[in-house]
From TrEMBL, chain A:
Organism: Melipona bicolor
Gene Ontology terms: cellular component: integrator complex
Protein name: Integrator complex subunit 5
Integrator complex subunit 5 N-terminal domain span: 12-215
InterPro entries: INTS5, INTS5_C, INTS5_N
One Pfam family matching this protein: INTS5_C
Organism lineage string: Eukaryota, Metazoa, Ecdysozoa, Arthropoda, Hexapoda
Domain Integrator complex subunit 5 C-terminal: 226-917
BP term (GO), one: snRNA 3'-end processing
From TrEMBL, chain B:
Species this chain originates from: Melipona bicolor
Family matches, as Pfam families: INTS15
Name the UniProt record assigns to this protein: Uncharacterized protein
Organism domain of life: Eukaryota
PANTHER family from the UniProt entry: INTEGRATOR COMPLEX SUBUNIT 15 (PTHR14540)
Length: 927, 363
């Protein structure tokens, strides 16, 4: 055999040639194929003249191999194909040629392999097991698993790789020319090769397709096979080169918009055809639509749209001169967008609402663009509606809707727009989305509820809700039942509250707005004008969410917010109290919340707001305490506790709470302060009675610098609130419930003197004050610190016999007055007791006498008259009689006239001061 | 035998036998007086090249059949018997000046070079001379051969080595054509090397077209042979000013040497013509004039050429012209040539000298 390299003699060459010819011309003996191929390869190496013949012969070999492969596919056999080894050999030799001298061999071999591939693809396109409508990927798979075609593709790719650097254009041209010749069966080759050289192939395929599209514009009814090829190829490439495709499409689009005067007619037509071409591409493949929308959309700015308007009439020519067809295609493409849906909607809205005519060539053009945009928008919305209704909301798969769903945050601000069209569009879109997933509706509605500033927007909210009420009632599946169970406005409110509670970034404005809106809605509902609201859904919603609302009111320190909440609650609880009795827990929560609000009001400087707020508080508390005794207990305790002991006390004239602060210091530093003398704990060296060493003398608590008038007002308001808590609804005449006031006085005792011992009503022997002196002083100090207590005592004194329960407090103060002859306190004490009818007439006048007395006289009178009388006459509620239906008890003055033992001292003291107290003496003792 | 009978008989035969048979018939026809040229052409078209539509059905494997045909042709011309003149005539009618059969001719020549088929090579040589060895047909044939042997299968260059010995007339014509192939670009080094060897080993090669008389049938008029000398001179003259881009030094060094060698060999050949009476048509003045024009234009357009290289170019031009003038083997418009040299004479003394020496003689 002469297959080895090395020079052949001329005779050998001739012999080889003859052998090859005889083998190639009659390819009957398949056994000799290998032999002939080897001869052919040797000829290829040594006899350039035989090159074409040899390559042609290889064609036969490949054809045979492919035939066998296809037949095996069809018969499901799996035998070895003997040509495969030959093909492998051919591959090796050809590769070596290409690598050895690419410039010379690559064009020849690539032309040959492309042509052969084309022929094979067309020839066997209908064979094999592929379905009739097989796509490019099926072809690719079938042919890549065939040894022969795979080898050819490899060779082609290798050739192109070599040529790419020097001669890109002609390579791609050859590729596409073959593709045109054998389209569509050749597409898989282009696709495969394309993935080796994505940039070039994509751009070229596009421009080729565009040219063809441009030329085909007249016969558009026929499906354009070339367009399908382009789509197939790009679709295949999209898998791995999506970015390149996107960029190429964008470039093409931008190119079509470039204005250039010096272009020939062809280019101009191509530029005009670009947009219809892109639209057609997109309509044929979802992938390409995605590619186009991802980037081209970004460039679709307001300044470009007028430019497009200029071409619109030319585009129609590509749609059989039917603008409707173009519109229809556009609408369907928009529906198919998987991303950028909200952006699309926005573009349409912006354009149709734009008021400027800048950039348009005429006013008419601008007008028609706007009307077309709104038409498209309307068509899109209608189409979605139709699809949802025909397929049912769950099964209808609309890409645009899915895209909007993902970016529905972008749609939300439309709801707050000023233009009705935007709001309407947004609402319609949200309704569509809502039919698929109700959650979206809820968050959208809650968004609107929180953000709406005008009633206009609230009306939009109502519309959004009412649209869906109908939708829900029409088809109740499992998911909607959740909503049906408690009206879904409830969920909206719940969601909004959750947002307010947990989203820390949320502005101060929004919670207030939310409650204001709720109030407005509630008013609307109460007005009974809106049919939609007759179901009382807003009341229901508030009712359901009261726990959250009250928690919010309890938590908040923001007066405005609290005010809005309170107003809302006020309105809520106004008319139909009969229907709604909250459970205990909720009542208590509400009570606590209202009381918090009360103290916020008290803190507020603005008198009008304060009074309004307190009015609301009174109203609310009245309601609450009337129905629930627990609420009353809690309310009173809270109010008294806070206003006496806690921070708010200062607003009622109490001294500021003062906690001396001691900083933690290092032991070392403390030791440095020591001198050499030893220190004993609690000795003079360590503790100085006026203060602490190192910190100077104890500072007195800061003065209460709140305006006296304000304090007075606050006290009045507090009394109002307490009265409201103790309200009595049964009779209009006596608005205050005595039992409740008894509770107040008991509470006062508990708060001021929480002792167990000697806390009863009876006054002991005067000597006994020595035992209780410490407690008495304590009570005295509390009254001094918290002057409000006097006011409260007065309140209880008003509503007899409640004051009787405060006996211990009165006793304590009386004891201290006896000890320190304090006139002011004595007067206060006696007048309170007189008011409460604990001291009957002549004794009641002691308050007028005290200021003029000497200290020892004060002591005497307190001892002899007040204390002694009280010791004899235990201040018990039994002393008072209460007439039927009356609310206040009276002490019978006739039966309770004090014994002269108690009045004699008073008379004598009056006598001794007769120069000033003459008239009083006359009034008391001479009648 | 009438033309139709011949055709009918031939039609009974299959390819490639019909081609072979047709060739024999044509040979017979050619040898006769009253050649029946039309019949010849019909036979060639129908039976040899199968260009008639009726025979197209066999065209499924074109290239293989071409190869078959080439094999038949080479076999036919090599077969014993028959006169060279008649065969040459057949060859000429097979590949007339304006036919589309150059590809087959190219492959035929390429194959016979490999198989050293002297008969076909000679016939091709005559074909080239008759069409003019600088004609486009010849040049494209030369290009085909060069492409096959230098570009596609560089390993087979050896096959060309013995060509001058085997078919000097063909080789000389081929060389003339090759000179035109690289009219405005530098030839590859391998080619330079090969040509250097060729001329070195066969000093008379360059003059072969002048000496050999082609074997033509009676009545055939041989065309004026064109020697490769002028074409090769052009290479040598223009190459220094062209190689501006600095290449690999070893490589360019070798090329410089090769050019010098060829220049030297050319000068030798020209000078050898000096005492030969039959030398008037060795070199065309037009050919030189064209070279001179190109050189002048190049020197004008590219001012940054290394002065050494520029001088080398002009020196070679002066040498070539003066040698040709002294050997008196130049024909055509010598005045024009000298007039073209005039502007260059200021740049190089040798040109000036040449002008001074030969201006009077040319007149």
């Amino acid at each position: 055999m002469l297959h080895s390299t090395g020079a052949l003699s001329p005779e050998d060459i001739l012999a080889e040639v003859r052998k090859f010819i005889s083998g190639a011309v009659r390819p009957t003996h398949s056994t000799s194929t290998l032999d002939v191929t080897r001869t052919a390869l040797s000829l290829l190496r040594h006899v350039p003249a035989a090159r074409d013949a040899v390559l042609e012969y290889f064609c036969n070999v490949f054809f045979i191999a492919v035939t066998k492969y296809v037949r095996q596919l069809e018969t499901n056999q799996n035998l070895a194909i003997c040509e495969e080894t030959i093909i492998a050999e051919i591959h090796t030799v050809l590769s070596s040629f290409i690598n050895g001298n690419p410039e010379a061999w690559a064009p020849i071999i690539s032309a040959w392999s492309l042509e052969l591939l084309g022929k094979l693809s067309s020839e066997y396109a209908k064979r094999g097991n592929l379905p009739v409508n097989a796509g490019i990927n099926d072809f690719l798979q079938q042919w890549m698993s065939c040894c022969a075609t795979r080898t050819l593709i490899d060779i082609t790719a290798q050739c192109l790789q070599c040529l790419m650097h020097s001669d890109t254009e002609s390579c791609i041209k050859a590729l596409l020319d073959t593709s045109v010749l054998h389209s569509p069966h050749f597409d898989w080759v282009v696709a495969h090769v394309g993935s080796c050289f994505p940039n070039t192939v994509i751009t070229r395929v596009l421009s080729c397709g565009l040219k063809d599209f441009c030329a085909m514009k007249n016969e558009h009814n026929v499906k354009n096979p070339k367009l399908n090829s382009v789509v197939g190829i790009l679709g295949h490439l999209a898998g791995s080169h999506f970015q390149d495709i996107t960029a190429a499409l964008l470039d093409l689009f931008k190119w079509s918009l470039q204005e250039d005067v010096n272009i020939d007619e062809d280019t101009k037509n191509q530029k005009l055809a670009t947009v219809p071409f892109l639209l057609n591409l997109a309509s044929l493949s979802q992938t390409l639509l995605k590619a186009i929308t991802s980037d081209v959309l970004q460039t679709l700015k307001p300044d470009i749209i007028p430019q497009l308007a200029l071409f619109a009439s030319d585009w129609c020519r590509y749609f059989d001169n039917q603008p409707e067809a173009l519109l229809d295609l556009t609408v369907h493409l928009i529906l198919g967008c998987e991303q950028g849906g909200s952006q699309l909607i926005n573009i349409l809205l912006d354009t149709s609402l734009s008021t400027s005519n800048v950039g348009y060539h005429s006013v008419n053009a601008a007008q028609s663009v706007k009307s077309v945009c709104s038409e498209i928008l309307e068509l899109v919305l209608q189409e979605i509606d139709l699809l949802l209704r025909t397929h049912g909301p769950q099964s209808a798969n609309i890409a645009l809707l899915n895209s909007i769903k993902q970016e529905f945050v972008v749609i939300l601000p439309l709801l707050l727009s000023q233009t009705p069209l935007r709001i309407q569009t947004a609402i319609r879109l949200l309704c569509f989305l809502g039919s698929q997933s109700p959650n979206i509706l809820i968050s959208a509605a809650s968004y609107l509820l929180v953000k709406a500033v005008t009633t206009f927007h609230l009306a939009a909210l109502i519309r959004l809700i009412s649209n869906n009420i109908i939708l829900f009632s029409s088809n109740k599946s499992e998911t909607e039942n959740i909503l049906a169970s408690h009206s879904y406005f409830t969920q909206i409110v719940e969601q909004s509250l959750r947002d307010i509670n947990y989203r820390s970034i949320i502005g101060k404005q929004e919670p207030e707005q939310f409650f204001q809106n709720l109030t407005i809605l509630l008013k609307w509902e109460r007005s009974n004008k809106a049919v939609v609201l007759r179901s009382k859904m807003i009341t229901q919603a508030i009712k359901f969410n009261l726990p959250q609302i009250s928690a919010l009111l309890t938590k908040t320190t923001d007066f405005d917010l609290a005010n809005d909440i309170a107003k809302m609650l006020d309105l809520f609880s106004m008319p139909e109290k009969d229907n709604f009795i909250p459970n205990v827990e909720l009542t208590l929560k509400l009570t606590r919340a209202v009381i918090q609000y009360f103290f916020l009001c008290i803190e507020k400087d603005d008198i009008t707001k304060k009074q309004q707020g307190v009015k609301i508080v009174c109203h609310l508390l009245k309601d609450l305490t009337f129905y629930s005794p627990c609420a009353r207990v809690l309310a009173l305790r809270e109010i008294l506790g806070y206003s006496i002991n806690n921070d708010p006390a200062k607003y009622f004239g109490a001294k500021e709470k003062f906690v001396p602060k001691f900083e933690e210091t290092l032991l070392l530093h403390q030791n440095h302060k020591q001198v050499t003398s030893t220190m004993l704990a609690q000795k003079h060296s360590s503790v100085f009675h006026a203060g602490v060493i190192g910190h100077g003398p104890r500072r007195p608590p800061p003065q209460n610098n709140i305006d006296k008038e304000i304090i007075a007002l606050n006290k009045i308001l507090l009394i109002d609130v307490i009265k409201a808590c103790c309200s009595n609804r049964e009779s209009e005449r006596y608005p205050v419930n005595l039992d409740a006031l008894t509770m107040v006085s008991l509470l006062l005792v508990e708060l001021v003197s929480p002792d167990v011992m000697y806390n009863g009503l009876p006054w002991p022997d005067e000597e006994f004050t020595k035992v209780t002196i410490e407690r008495d002083l304590q009570i005295h100090r509390t009254f001094k610190d918290v002057p409000l207590l006097w006011t409260l005592l007065e309140l209880t004194a008003w509503y007899r016999p409640a004051l009787a329960y405060c006996s211990v407090l009165l006793r304590g103060i009386a004891a201290t007055v006896m000890a320190n002859w304090n006139i002011d306190e004595g007067v206060l004490l006696v007048s309170v007791m007189a008011l409460g009818q604990l001291l009957p007439p002549p004794l009641a006048s002691i308050r007028d006498v005290l200021p003029v007395l000497e200290p020892q006289q004060i002591n005497t009178i307190m001892k002899e008259c007040v204390w002694a009388y009280m010791r004899e006459n235990v201040p018990s509620p039994a002393l008072f009689t209460r007439s039927e239906g009356a609310n206040i008890a009276w002490r019978d003055t006739d039966t309770s006239t004090p014994n002269s033992r108690f009045t004699e001292t008073l008379r004598l003291l009056l006598l001794s001061n007769i120069h000033t107290l003459g008239p009083l003496y006359a009034a008391l003792f001479l009648q | 035998m009438a033309g139709n009978d011949i055709k009918q008989n031939l039609r009974k035969l299959d390819f490639p036998y019909c081609a072979r048979e047709a060739l024999c018939r044509i040979e017979i026809l050619c040898g006769r007086p009253g050649k029946q040229v039309d019949l010849q052409l019909d036979l060639i078209s129908e039976f040899v090249f199968g260009e008639i539509e009726r025979r197209k059905k066999r065209n499924l494997t074109i290239a293989i059949q071409e190869l078959q045909l080439i094999e038949v042709l080479s076999d036919f011309f090599q077969s014993p018997g028959g006169s060279a003149a008649v065969r040459n005539a057949v060859f000429l009618s097979l590949f007339p000046a304006d036919s589309p059969r150059y590809k087959i001719l190219g492959n035929l020549v390429s194959l016979v070079i490999a198989t050293q088929n002297k008969a076909v090579l000679n016939a091709t040589g005559i074909w080239m001379q008759q069409l003019g060895s600088t004609s486009s047909q010849s040049v494209s044939l030369a290009r085909h051969v060069l492409n096959d042997y230098f570009v596609l299968t560089p390993k087979s260059i050896d096959k060309l080595k013995h060509l001058p010995v085997l078919a000097p007339h063909f080789t000389a014509n081929l060389l003339t054509a090759i000179g035109e192939v690289y009219e405005d670009k530098d030839p590859p080094t391998e080619l330079l090397r090969l040509i250097g060897e060729w001329i070195d080993e066969n000093p008379s090669l360059l003059l072969t077209p002048l000496i050999d008389n082609p074997a033509l049938p009676t009545g055939g008029i041989p065309m004026t042979p064109i020697t490769p000398i002028a074409g090769l001179f052009r290479w040598c003259i223009l190459s220094p000013v062209r190689s501006i881009d600095i290449e690999d030094t070893d490589y360019s060094e070798e090329r410089k040497k090769l050019y010098s060698k060829i220049q030297h060999l050319l000068m030798d050949s020209v000078l050898r013509l000096k005492n030969n009476g039959n030398n008037k048509h060795a070199i065309s003045a037009q050919h030189f004039a064209a070279t001179t024009r190109t050189l002048t234009a190049t020197l004008q357009s590219q001012t940054n050429i290394n002065s050494i290289l520029r001088d080398l170019s002009m020196e070679r031009l002066a040498q070539a012209v003066s040698a040709a003038m002294s050997a008196n083997c130049i024909y055509g418009n010598k005045q024009e040539l000298l007039a073209l040299l005039q502007p260059l004479s200021y740049l190089h003394f040798l040109i000036e000298w040449t002008l001074q020496t030969y201006a009077s003689k040319a007149a």
